[in-house]
Amino acid sequence: MDKQTSRREFLAAGLLAGLAVGCSDKNPFAPGDDTVKASGEKVKLLSVDGEIIEVDKAFLKPVPDMPQVTNAQERLGIAGKSFVMVIDLSRCKNLRKCQSACNHMHNVHPGQNWIKVHQMKDADHTAPYWQPSTCMHCDSPPCVKVCPVDATFKRQDGIVLIDNNRCIGCRFCMAACPYSTRVFNWEEPAEEDKSLAEKPHDSCESSLPQKKGTVGKCDFCPDMTRMGMLPHCVSACPNGVFMFGDMNEDSVTNGSETFRFSELVKDKAGYRLMEDLGTNPRVYYLPPVSRNFPFENGLENDNDKNAKY
Amino acid sequence: MIWTGVLIAICLVGAYGYYRQLTKGLVVTNMRDYVSWGIYISNFVFFVAISLVGSLITAILRLANVRWSTPLTRIAEIIAVSAIVFASIIIIVDMGRPERFVNLFVYGRLQSPIIWDVVVIGTYFFISCFLLYFPLLPDLKILIANKNKQPKWMSWMYRFMGSFWKGTVSQFKMSHKAITILCIMIIPVAFAIHTVTSWLFATTYRPGWDSTNFGAYFISGAFLVGAGGVVVAMYVFRKFYRLEKYITEMHFEKMGRVVVLLALLYLYFNINEYLIPAFKMKKPEEAHLTNLFAGEFAPVFWFAILVGMIFPIFILLFKKGRKPLPMFIVGCMVVVGAWFKRYLIVTPTLLHPFLPMDNAPENFKHYFPSWEEWAIAMGSLAGALLVITFFARIFPIVPIHETIEEDETKS
Asked: Are residues A126 and A88 in the same domain?
């Protein structure tokens, strides 16, 4: 733990070059083991105190650009954040780019989806519309309430995550979730794509690797937000349907446009799903009015019937 | 012998099914993301239900000073113990990661109804075992005394289990006291095991489960299926062990009255459970209820209602219906109807989620158990019967000492 924090502070303060030193506790530049011999070639670095210092190149070791977060930190969440999502139904035409990006980046089993795009029609004479649904990251999450082993938990930044190293696979959370958002790894997960190699592994934040016999679901991509980047569905959507942000900053963005969250939800009469259940979701929907596309445009992408498992 | 062989064979097929499930994952079942609980869970509910009979026959009737049930106590108690053991086994079978079972104790959250179930089922198991064991002690003494009539290993086991029992007055006093305390203790625990099991469903929002009626509904159904199970066992043991002298027509007559009362009670809760939501037809309930009444599940639903409740009530209202053979048939009807009833409680609800079942393969939207599921479920039922069979071969299935005592006080 100690070692990890010291390395982190050091990184934050000084290492603009993206290099760090295999460090010991006090002086990060003292060679940790005597087997490394100085090469004589010096590199200039900015120290924590803002001074330029010279270090022998042989003592520098490359490390990944972000330190691995411990399980305890993952369970706690990112301090000072309160993540929120707004889904604008007037922009969705069932392209499902969100879905394919999400499935790919989380190695979701073929046939299953974390994001589902529902074809909705509330009553006989009301208009149909497309409704992408993610995990609602409820503030009163029914799934977390019923988990017997604290494998699914609520973090201080609002995200509901699953620790698939702890999940016993009882599937009570799946029964408890009214949004049917959770999926189960019924069999050994498919082999991971090489492009996922750089994601943190054995981590609740990336949900990787997927594990047989455990539950999975939309995680709001906290591994991305930790790096200051948007969740995969948000950046994959060409129509800007998904807006993601922080309630404390009162702003949400889809990458190209940024809105004040409170004003957006107020102006466009935002709502949440199944408000009457008291689950307090963190996902807000903007109603499908003044649509960018006619509903029918989405039908050609509706290939549910061809899906195989 | 054929009976035992068949049971062992079914168990072995079930074990092979479970081996396949362990190596390939739960994919060998036909459960998928929507129907994430299938016949394993309904079988679990069935086992917990049937095990409640131990508390009914041994504890409730005993405390109410009903004496005719004494020869039936051991049958009821061994059904209770073996059912609760297989309830625990089947719930582990349902887990995606059975090797992480220990997490329940390492990371257990008392807020979760599953932990409540672990606690009360564990407690119920131990109380039931004691209630089986303590009244057995005087019988063991009788068995030890007749040691030349048994194989060596049997008398060795009787001595191991009960040689400390000398039958002194103080020992009897202690044992009576212990049994009374256990009888009182087991009643709230029995109510708890099945109420908590009903809460596994009732604590969710789903139509068909989101009901305040569920605890009482489950308990009444449990007493019914348990009593039905005892009737079946009574008939079989009476026939094969020639116990006509001890399990008499009077016992069937009395048990018939118990069963008809329980069936009426269960019917009452069923009316509450189905007709009141059907009166309102709230939108999410509507899809679920019409599916039960007239849709895909209608044949099973009406089978469970008619065969599990209505027909038994009509048969048992007549004196001729309470003779041993009709009672045996009624008992079978009640038990089979109850098994399907549990299936109907678990599965159809899961096929009616709040949001439409979109973006999922076609086979996610239906459920019929795979052969592995059938094999494992039937294997667990066979296993429970096997435990009862072996118990009856080794120990007296009618409590000897208590029955003698009963007869003496009568005369």
From this structure: yes
pLDDT number for residue A16: 37
CATH number at residue A227: 3.30.70.20
| Residue A259 covered by a domain | yes
Q: Which fold has domain B2-410?
A: Formate dehydrogenase/DMSO reductase fold (1.20.1630)
**Domain extent for A11:** 2-61
Answer yes or no: do B103 and A184 touch at CB < 8 A.
Answer: no
Angle between helices B152-162 and B136-145 (to 10 degrees): 140
pLDDT band (50, 70, 90) for residue B205: very high
Give domain status of residue A283, yes or no: yes
Confirm or reject contact between A186 and chain B (CB < 8 A).
Answer: yes
CB < 8 Å & 24+ apart, contacts of B400-409: B400/B138, B400/B139, B400/B142, B401/B135, B401/B138, B401/B139, B401/B142, B402/B70, B402/B73, B402/B135, B402/B138, B403/B70, B403/B71, B403/B246, B406/B67, B406/B70, B406/B71, B409/B67
Q: Give the C-alpha separation, B315 to A111, whole Å.
A: 51
Where does the pLDDT of residue A13 fall: very low under 50, low under 70, confident under 90, or very high at 90 and above? very low
Query: Which chain B residues are closer than 8 Å to A170 by Cβ?
Result: 94-96, 114
Contacts of A166 in chain B (CB under 8 A): 100, 103, 107
Same domain, A27 and A139: no
Instruction: Tell me the chain B residues in contact with residue A120 when contact means C-beta distances shorter than 8 Å.
Output: 356
Interface pTM, i.e. ipTM: 0.93
Cβ contacts of residue B283 below 8 Å, gap of 6+? none
What pTM does this model have? 0.89
Residues A153 and A179 in one domain: yes
Q: B-chain residues within 8 Å CB-CB of A308?
A: 361
Which residues of chain A from 228 to 267 reach within 8 Å of chain B, CB to CB? none
Q: Are residues A14 and A120 in the same domain?
A: no
Q: Which of B95, B102, B358, B362 to mutate to test the interface with A (most CBs of A within 10 A)?
A: B358
pLDDT, tens digit, 9 for 90 and up, residues A226-258: 989 999 999 999 999 999 999 999 999 999 999
Of the partner residues B200, B205, B363, the one whose CB lies closest to the CB of residue A142: B205
* Chain A 152-181, residues with CB within 8 Å of chain B CB atoms: 166-172, 174-176, 178-180
**pLDDT at residue A41, rounded to an integer:** 85
- Considering the domain architecture, whether residues A218 and A261 belong to the same structural domain is answered as yes
